[in-house]
Records
---
Amino acid sequence: MQANDPDILWVEEPKLGLAGKLYLPLIAQGLTTTTRHLFSKKITVSYPDTEPEIANPLIYRGVHRLNRDEQGRVKCVACFLCATACPAHCIDIIGTESPWPDREKYPESFTIDELRCIYCGMCEEACPVDAIELTSLYNLTGRTREEMVFDKEKLLSVHDQTIDKEPMRSQGGATSQGGFP
Amino acid sequence: MPLVETQTRDLAHDEEQEFVWTLNFGPQHPATHTTLRLVLKLEGERVIDAMPDIGYLHSGFEKIGEHLDYNQYVTVTDRMNYISPMANNVAWHCAVEKLLDLDVPPRCQYIRTIICELARISDHLLSTGAMGLDTGAFTFFLYAFNQREKIYDIFETLCGARFTNSYTRVGGVMHDATPLFVEKVREFVRTFPRTVEDMERLLNRNRIFVDRTKGVGVLSKVDAIGWSCSGPIARASGVTRDLRRDEPYLCYPDFDFKVCCMREGDCFARYLIRIAEIKESLKIVAQAIENLPEGPVNCEVGDRAHLPDKSQVYQTIEGCITHFELTMSNRGFEVPEEECYHATEAPNGELGFYLAGDSSDVAYRARCRPPSYIHFAVFPHLIKGHTLSDVVAVLGSLNIIAAELDR
């Protein structure tokens, strides 16, 4: 671009003037600004007492859960798509022949290392049966590393804990292009 | 210009040791903000030489790019310039789409433009805020950070994460924009100018701040071009270059905005440029959110680039096959054996990715051109002759992000 291009805005330095050079008038101006903020609405949240509001729990990327089907069995079919899509390689699945007639495989063990996970949500996008989903639980803590490696039972218990507030995507009708509420 | 051999200087064992003393600034110092190290040669309080020492935050991001596929790598770009992750996401996927020769739908381009500009606002809020913080203006920093929180909220509504967004995908985005997102952006556009006014009132004519930054770290136009500076740092020195105007990408030609430039080239000019750019970015966001086109946000199933919508996966055979093939590692994207470079105007300057495709779905080479790396090289040139207390002012005005610098 040339220097005289009409798309260029040449920013001017603000003039200090006499008021600026004298310090005091501008100190008074600064103090009025801060005083106005002093009496305006408080913007901080006292965290453990009041939880922050999550705008859209359905797309929030928190702790994972493994969904159950209508009969309470694990929905996962051990297709390994989530483990393939995971950029952090934190999902470990051992698939075996399913004891139920309606599908061929099911996960004998399904572990997610929650410390290794980067919560990108790619497992959720890759799952072809809506079995793995991210919930809105964000304050995950533990005392040991072993405690933070979630196995199948623990992931299913996250489902039991959250399913009332966050319906499954296939049942809530919420898909990536359909738009969330 | 002929290439000259680099001088390797051992500042600690210099002959002039009697008059000159050496100060290690960083890697752990509150004003470096991240792990930067500077070896300063001081004569009294005057800096006569400075040597940046980089590599403290080297994480092998470019090597990881040779192992993660084009979608997975977006999680790594989040962690490069972590104060504006969305801009990095967009830069990466613009480069990938150029390599794949893929056109994304207009709605996707508009959403990407909006998040890019919001990222620019949040980046400038933090860099000017931190510059104020380093020179003693703490309140200014708090006002800026409160508005950054609003932008985090908007991003959380859009993609479910506040900080490491990983929002874009090849040929589209992760989730479509919702009415709630549009409403939040409108509210931000409405309430934000008041904060900028407050910020300007606190610092623009504050004599303490002006005295500390005006005339400090002057970068001439010739030097700015010679050191290949870009972004607000080059524009503060009078280089009239903005990739959004000069090499338009996304849908920037649709919008009415100005490129902010100054001739002074000192720290104060870089501060003023950033404040002016915040206002221009807000204008772009306001125009884009009102003209957000309807229609699909992602590429069609036939393009085989973006994971199909879940309803298509369950109901159509093409959707199901595309879904599986795109996720499987050996039959994902169809990538030509070509090279490409795509640069975007990131908040800090020109952020470009150079990609070499080798027909697999993992890049053969994923080189990043980070603005911070180039701007940190200018630092010794800017600080020479100034006092030790000016180091923080100059560092703050350059906005060096070590994670992006070392990659």
---
Amino acid sequence: MKLKRALLVSFVLTAVLAGCGPAPTPEVIRETVEVEVPVEQTVVVEKTVEVEKTVEVEKTVEVVQEQEVVTIAYNNYFNMTFGPADPPIEAIRAAVAEKYPNIKIEFNVMPYEAGPWHDNYVTWFTAEDGTTDLIGVGAYWTAEFGEAGWLLPLNDMISQDILDKLNPAYLDAHTYKGDLIGLGPWWGGIGGLYYRTDLLDEYGFEPPETYEELVTIAEAIMAEEPNMSGWTWPALNDQVLVNRWTEFLNGFGGTYFNEDGTCAMNSEEAVAALEFMVSLIEDGISPREITTWKEEDSQVRFVSGQSIFHTGRQDMMFWLDNPEQSEIVDQWDFIPMPSSPEGESTGYYEGWAFSINQYSDNPEAAAKVLEVMFDFDVQKAFNLSQGPIQAHMDVYEDPEVIENNPNLPKIQAVADTAEPPIPSPRYTEMADILAQELHSALTGIKAPQAALDDACGRIDAIQQ
Amino acid sequence: MEQLDMVMALLRVIAFFAGSVGILFLGITMLRRAETITRGQKVTIRWLVYLVAGLYVIAALAFLIRPQLGAVPAMVAVAASIALTVGLTGRFSLSLGERDMAILFVLPAFLGILVLYYYPIAQTIIYSLHDLQYTARWLEESFIWFQNYARVLTSTNFLQAAGFTFYFTVVAVFLEFWIGLGMAMTTFWVSRRLRGVLRSIIVIPWAIPPIISASMWRWLFNGDVGIGALLVQIGLIEQSPLFLVDRTLAVHSVILADVWKWSSVMAIFLLGGLAVISEDIYDAAKVDGARGFFRFRRITLPMIMPTIIVAILFRAMEALRTFDLVFGLTGGGPGTTTETLSSFAYKYYFKYSNFGLGSAYAVVVTIVILVLSLLYVSRIRKNLRFGG
């Protein structure tokens, strides 16, 4: 019976022990310092000699500074560089180490794809987990996370000097009900039209400004070059399709919502836009395969020189300019999307901001790091390494940046057409509904009008 | 340093679990003793025992509301149990009988299952009865009875997904069974050396994670570089078919990918069943003049019937829950043609942060699968006898 009793007692003991974690104590560092002390010594011969002697002195130094850890969540692009600068995470670490030596940066790697990335956050927030302090947030989640109250308002946490340097137009996309809940864009993407300069020159065309012009050019060139696709864009049943559709919707003069907040995505203009998209596929200007393509699949034909027009983001430029991967180096240009006379040229804006987790254990330190990240040095280093659209306006006037990225003026022209994602807390669900209904129309399952009516019915239902 | 911290944290967790088990065991043992002593005694004392037992129930319910909340009532329950027994016997004794030891050994596993398995299930059911958006704090949100369930059952998309999932399950499992059986039997017909190689090959599709198979098949179905392009090159067809765009083709392309991946599991199951059939039975049948097909029909099939039933049950349940392979392949498209039942719970829960509705979807899918499985098992119960 002794054994059993011992077993029981040890159970109780371990339980008690488990309750007592280590108590936080102020850190005391004992440091040994070697000091050279000149000593005067009197010798019997009555001669004063200077002797060098080493004396060991024990010195106690009280260090008050506490080591703080700030964890950042972003995808693995933080570890990459495509230009003459360190990867972003290194640049941030160096800048933070210089300004706040007691802050240590940890990096939490997120998935590349926005969907799983978002879902991870939802899990963390629901569990009220504060491990990760600074989190990369897509502009499409601003309303959702803002409505849920998962991000700290930054208006009073970030110094005005930094805020003044950031482009106010973009900050709007990361503001929800008056609260600035993200600094951005850290990385911004914009959709525009790529075209083959050599082909358009050869057949004597100017770059298109309207849909009609684009179709005419594509048909004329495809008649001569039967293996060439006219216009490629990703149209899988996925968020990418909704992004591209936004450009057509605005290009035909449509809007997301009516004045009263109800769904306007089945308006006359919206139906015309979708009918045009369907006609592109039916007339063979866009290959039928596009309905199975995500972003990466869709780029292949243009990069390998088998497509006249392509819609995509500005970051594809790095690929197009690389002779090892691209068949069309120096044979392309990037311009604002075409539009119909009733609408306006529109590029879909995908911005990624940084926000502070509302459950963060350490919001003050996180705010300090956030300031460093959006200060000039880190912003410039990021532009040199990855060259996106950025919030900090001074970056675009820096001679080193301009020299490194000769495509900047092209990007600037397209950036003026930016249109943010649907501003709704229910964005993710709406995007799914739109992707399904738009895809139904593009694959011939539903007529455009019916698909958009269904979409609006479902969207209005979840808005109530 | 960090590793050490992690080891310490792990040790603390283990110590905490062991401690909880110990304390709970102490309480339960004491209460059982009090129950034994008071058996047949005064009603008032019996009531005391029931009262203390009730404290444990309260602790469990408090745990369900918030795990931290369960600690205090549990402590009170344990203390009350000890006090009761000490008060009844007049002394504190820890001598343990055989039954006590049995409980001690079962308790850790029981607690583990309770916390990791039944607790989430209970939580999901509670969530499904609340209007939870962006938050899982159900105590602070409104209780809406079965409104979430009403939304689930009236959702046309969900019903359409149910249709696709059942069709997918029936066709895929049927094909997987026959192909798997073929593969399993083939390994018995070839030479011993080839047998090992063949069985290793069979395992490969199964070993590849579903989401990776999905991207693999996405390229195979790609019109420019996949199977279609190959058929065009050979000259069998003129234009590459759009496997994932056409409705009928998309449904069957998904089934094809699933069959490719899961036939091997079926084969592995059936290999086990086939291996136990004694060679003597076949020899005896040959002597009696039974032909190949007859031997298969009258000996092989009946002998491995229990294995077949279990294998089909497993695969059917898996197929009903299918999500990653199909979703990675088509994203539910074209339109909503290949949406599966399981995708709804995932979408509402993780994508739309609507935990109430997401939980309702999860509960409905669970009930559907449970009912179908029970029906299946009860109908074939007589075949489920292994051995004797």
